[in-house]
Design a protein that fits this description.
With 260 residues, the protein is mostly helical. Helix content is 54%, strand content 0%. It has twelve helices and no strands. Helix 1 crosses helix 11. The longest helix has 19 residues. It is elongated. 36% of the residues are buried. The protein binds iron/sulfur cluster (SF4). Iron/sulfur cluster binds next to helix 9 and helix 12.
């Protein structure tokens, strides 16, 4: 009988924006928790914590805003959201409108032809499950149940779930992870290089102290995102001036800086 062929292990993907740079080694959980805390403190020193919430939308408004924002610049998705609000008296009217009218109102976002029917599907599903377009029950559900309720909506992923819980007036303890946040976490070795954005939500939240309140978790999202926007760029991160250089295996490999 022929021996089964051995399958070569798949090499880990290169770090985002850094070509064939080696991924940082995976640190044990306790080390990663300590690293996450040190990173948070330093970045709070850099960007200033606590950070004001950037808006105060009702949960359903935040859900719609978040669905429109996928792969779309903030300015464009904000305009599309305002255009939708101006074109229809309420979300029930958006739900029941001909899809072409919704698509026209959100024409400034990426893929309006897909987002318009997807948005109506979500609004219909909420109506079916709640009997009305109302998400107020998320304020009192236990955290895991609130997350599961939102995640069961069609096309709603971990980032949208966390955005609704954290950014809306619910102000609950949840950690949205955008592409900047995710990239910085990968380069620091807080998550493996192979960990996609979706699963990174739970892994990164698990590194933060359970005693932290919603504001502290929101601050963590904000400082990680800002660091990705202002220093740890997709291409050519500014490692030489980075306040995390001594903690960061990627930065040390790029600059030859010594370990801590
Ligand atoms: S040292 Fe470089 S790779 Fe590491 S977090 Fe800072 S900018 Fe990003």
């Amino acid at each position: 009988m022929p021996l089964p062929r051995r399958v070569a292990p798949t090499p880990p993907p290169p770090l985002p924006g850094l070509g064939a740079a080696p991924p940082p080694p995976a640190a044990p959980d306790a080390d990663r928790r300590e690293l996450a805390l040190t990173v948070h403190r330093r970045l709070c020193g850099e960007y200033g914590c606590p950070i004001d919430y950037f808006h105060a939308l009702a949960p359903l408004d935040e859900l719609v805003s978040s669905l429109l924002s996928h792969r779309t610049r903030n300015r464009d998705s904000h305009r599309a959201y305002e255009s939708l609000r101006a074109a229809f008296p309420d979300w029930a009217a958006v739900r029941d409108a001909p899809v072409a009218e919704v698509e026209r109102a959100i024409a400034g976002v990426t893929w309006p032809e897909a987002k318009a029917p997807a948005l109506q599907r979500v609004l219909r599903t909420i109506t079916e499950r709640r009997g009305a377009l109302d998400l107020s029950h998320l304020a009192t559900l236990p955290a895991a149940e609130a997350e599961a309720w939102l995640a069961a909506l069609p096309g709603v992923g971990p980032k949208t779930v966390a955005a609704v819980l954290s950014f809306s007036t619910l102000r609950r303890r949840a950690l949205p992870v955008d592409s900047h946040h995710h990239r910085v976490a990968q380069r620091l070795g807080l998550i493996p290089a192979s960990c996609a954005v979706g699963p990174s939500h739970a892994r990164l939240l698990a590194l933060l102290p359970e005693a932290w309140d919603a504001q502290q978790v929101y601050d963590n999202h904000q400082v990680m995102m800002r660091h990705g926007q202002r220093c740890c760029f997709f291409r050519n991160p500014a490692c030489a001036r980075c306040v995390l250089l001594d903690l960061c295996p990627t930065g040390r490999a790029r600059t030859g800086a010594p370990p801590p």
